[in-house]
Amino acid sequence: MGKPLIATNVPGCREVVENEKNGLLVRPRDSENLGNAMRMLISNEIRLQEYGKSSLMMSRHKFDFAGINNRIVNLYK
Question: What is the distance between the terminal CA atoms of the chain, rounded to a whole angstrom?
């Protein structure tokens, strides 16, 4: 959908969010850090758009259905 992301810096989330490329990673259980990340994105329209475009490109590259199927098929060859 081309949206910027904010996620907790833990395994699983780090594979989807590249900090300051398509979103922001925040410290676990740190509501102040989360609030700061939200305020930073809300106040910076250019960064919102850049992160959103990067998210869309990353999702198409990493999570494309056809690409994933091809990797699975090649794994079993």
Answer: 33
